[in-house]
Write a structure and sequence with these properties.
12 helices, eight-stranded parallel barrel, about 35% helix, about 30% strand, alpha/beta
Length: about 250
């Protein structure tokens, strides 16, 4: 079970949004590379990065910041936001990304996702962001008519490495993961699912270890880590089955 610390990039800075609204951005660090190294030093083994400007613009905007992150950490990095073509996917993978996350294009052009999975095995994840049970696209600015499970099932057998499922209504507001919807999705498809949106406290970390959640690949945490609501050592100890007291010594 993996806990993915999140770096959301807006104008080259680490920020967190509420409900995906750019106007609500809180700046947490103006040095994304330093933040990436800090997460590595805290014991995290993966990094989740989103180019927020890119998600709205439809092309990479914070590429310089992502490049600095890749140089600063040895941890594998997954990146989403504005990646819409095979050429962009190949370019990012060549630059050292462990995997790319395809969101809007998964709705607009599912065949491209299948082509990418075939061309880059194990390197392509799909981001499914939902509002009111329907998939949202273009940086969450537009709603589609697709249901979450309906979209996910389009990629069964395609070789998708993971689905990152975000409940937009909970994102950035610390109300807890939507466990029911996330686990329902994980049970509906064979593709590994990563929970995102709303992770608020150690209670959510403990919830990740429950039997019905064990089929998840993990969960993403942003604001709760930046605000200190989750202690990294404690969270990682719980997920690894180690005594919490031992992790803090």
């Amino acid at each position: 079970m993996i806990l993915f610390p999140a770096i959301d990039l807006k104008d080259g800075q680490c920020v967190r949004l509420k409900h995906g609204e750019m106007a609500t951005a809180t700046i947490y660090n103006d040095d994304p590379a330093a933040q990436a190294k800090a997460f590595e030093d805290q014991g995290f083994e993966w990094l989740h990065v989103v180019d927020l400007n890119g998600a709205f613009k439809g092309q990479s905007v914070n590429s310089a910041a992502v490049g600095a992150i890749l140089k600063a950490t040895k941890n594998p990095v997954q990146l989403g936001g504005g990646i819409r073509t095979l050429e962009q996917i190949e370019d990012w993978l060549d630059r050292g990304l462990a995997r790319v996350i395809l969101g809007t294009v998964a709705v607009r052009d599912p065949d491209l996702v299948r082509q990418a999975c075939k061309a880059f095995p194990g390197k392509v994840a799909v981001g499914i962001d939902a509002k009111g049970g329907k998939v949202a696209v273009e940086g969450w600015a537009e709603a589609s008519s697709l249901g979450v499970v309906e979209l996910a099932k389009k990629f069964e057998g395609a070789g998708v490495a993971a689905i990152i499922y975000t409940d937009i209504d909970r994102d950035g507001v610390l109300t807890g993961i939507n466990w029911d919807a996330t686990i329902d999705l994980a049970e509906a498809v064979s593709i590994p699912v990563i929970a995102s949106g709303g992770l608020a406290s150690i209670a959510d970390i403990v919830r990740m270890t429950m039997p019905d959640a064990r089929k998840l690949e993990g969960a993403i945490s942003g604001r709760a880590l930046y605000d200190g609501r989750i202690d990294p050592a404690e969270a990682l100890a719980i997920l690894q089955g180690r005594p919490v007291a031992e992790a803090k010594t």
